[in-house]
Amino acid sequence: MNVQAKAAETDVVTLVNDMGARARGAAASLRVAPSAAKNAALIEAARLIRAEAASILEANGKDMASARERNLTAALLDRLELNPARVEAMAHGLDAIVALPDPVGQTIEEWSRPSGLKIARVRVPIGCIGVIYESRPNVTADAGALCLKSGNAVILRGGSESFHSSRAIVSCLRRGLVKAGLPEDCVQLVPTTDRAAVGEMLRATDHLNLIVPRGGKALIERVM
Q1: How many CB atoms lie within 10 A of CB 76?
Q2: CA distance 113 to 24
Q3: Pairing of strands 128-133, 118-122
Q4: Residue 147 · residue 100 · CB < 8 Å
Q5: Which helix (DSSP H) or strand (DSSP E) does residue 138 occupy?
Q6: Residue-by-residue pLDDT tens, the chain, 224 positions
Q7: Residues 6+ apart with CB under 8 A from 186
Q8: Closest of 17, 18, 49 to residue 174, by C-alpha
Q9: In whole angstroms, how large is the CA radius of gyration of the chain?
Q10: Distance (Å, rounded) from C-alpha 154 to C-alpha 156?
Q11: Which H helix or E strand runs over 173?
Q12: What are the residues facing 120 on neighbouring strands?
């Protein structure tokens, strides 16, 4: 391995570990955040997605241009492309998540022992989740919002094809968190298209409690 390649690998390791540490710090606050604060963050994020639809579409245009240069198939281009209706669908998806009941603190089951001891199973956040997915930009909004609603910090690593689109969407989610008084690092996007970041996320067991793959067979097999 040459010096430049070794330095790049070290940079990715440092990057993922730093993101993981910040996610754990944010998760400590998010796990005890009231439903009203989490919903407020999502409502503001949905508002921003609608208000900044033009900027999101402009970012998506960069991704589409790059994808065409790389001769991606028509099916992959369709998954990647955003239009006003698809941007609105993302915002509407956040509205739907706001309407869901907060799972944190829900009692799943409870029973009593003959001794009189009462036992209950209660839903709690997992902690820090990594989500690795492919080129659909809407997954950025869906995954970020669902983790936020369930009290989990998340590190998102989308496909390189949707990098600019995902960055614009995550900006809305993070500003929604700040507006609601929650740590913006509850939602983070890996800021590099370097494939080595995926491997580092899989190794970051000191920081990430769960990895969720969303994509094709090759991605799922790699995560497994």
Answers
A1: 17
A2: 36
A3: unpaired
A4: no
A5: helix 138-149
A6: 443 333 344 589 999 999 999 999 999 999 999 999 999 999 999 999 999 999 999 999 999 999 999 999 999 999 999 999 999 999 999 999 999 999 999 998 999 988 889 999 999 999 999 999 988 999 999 999 999 999 999 999 999 999 999 999 999 999 999 999 999 999 999 999 898 999 899 999 899 999 999 877 777 777 77
A7: 23, 26, 27, 29, 30, 147, 148, 153, 154, 177
A8: 49
A9: 19
A10: 6
A11: helix 163-179
A12: 110
The runs of H, that is alpha helices, within 1-108 are 3-30, 35-51, 53-69, 74-80, 84-99
Tokens found for residue 169: 């969407």
Give the C-alpha distances (Å, rounded to integers) separating 144 from 105, 115, 213.
20, 44, 14
Alpha-carbon dihedral 97, 99, 104, 106, rounded to 10 degrees: -130
Tell the residue number behind the tokens 């001891």, with chain if given: 117
CA atoms within 13 A on the CB side of 130: 25
- Tokens representing 148 are 């936020």
Structure tokens at 14: 């440092």
> At which residue do the structure tokens 């369930």 appear?
150
Tokens 């209660």 correspond to: 122
Structure tokens at 115: 């001794």
- Enter the pTM of the model: 0.90
Strand pairing report for 153-157 and 128-133: parallel
Number of other residues whose CB lies within 10 A of the CB of residue 71: 8
